[in-house]
Amino acid sequence: MDPQQSPQTVTPQGERVAPLIDGVRIRRATTHADERGTLCEVYDPRWRFTEEPLVYVYQVTIRPGQVKGWVLHQNYEDRLFFSQGTVKVGLYDVRQDSPTRGMVNELFFDPHQRSLLRIPRGVWHAMRNVGSDDAMFINSPTAPYNHQQPDKWLLPADTPRIPYEI
Fold it and tell me: Going residue by residue through the chain (166 aa), what tens digit of pLDDT does each one get?
């Protein structure tokens, strides 16, 4: 096999060149450090990142090598803030009316790329901790969790129904 040139994945400014699934948004966070530690803003409505108000917030950890997902919500969006550990996120768009139906995104977040990620309803998502320490994220979904009837549809991590291996 002849050598092949590696394709471009980012711009000179570090922005990804591959398109995102319609409705997915990423807002890179700025971390301010001094001799005492760090401060990182998670969410501010003035950013206009999302129009829906904050109604529910919870924190999740993922142990090294473990997977959370595949998960799909039909009635609300997830807004995830990745702050600790190294996480690979897989997204798969199955929305009937989406211009990106069938598209897969692979995203990575770590303490050097702290970010707020919006995942629209109807998009399958899974996360794998690809680091050596516990990973952590905060979720502020657009609706509170319904314990009696969860809007949480599940598939196993190795499902053949999603054309991506998390």
Answer: 899 989 898 899 888 889 999 999 999 888 888 898 888 888 888 888 888 888 999 999 999 999 999 999 999 999 999 999 999 999 999 999 999 999 999 999 999 889 999 999 999 999 999 999 999 999 999 999 999 999 999 999 999 999 999 9
CATH (domain of 123): 2.60.120.10
Strands (E), the chain: 25-28, 31-34, 37-40, 58-62, 67-72, 78-84, 87-93, 104-109, 115-119, 123-129, 135-139, 153-154
Residue 105 lies in a domain: yes
**Inside any domain, residue 135:** yes
Short-list 47, 85, 81, CA closest to 65: 85
| Domain count within the chain | 1
Distance CA 77, CA 118 (A): 7
CA distance 65 to 121: 26
111 within a domain of the structure (yes/no): yes
Domain of 66 in residue numbering reads as 19-29+57-144
Which of the 8 DSSP states describes residue 93? E
What is the model's pTM? 0.88
Name, in order, each residue with C-beta under 8 angstroms of 32's C-beta and a sequence gap of 6 or more. 38, 39, 40
Beta bridge mates, 89: 107, 127
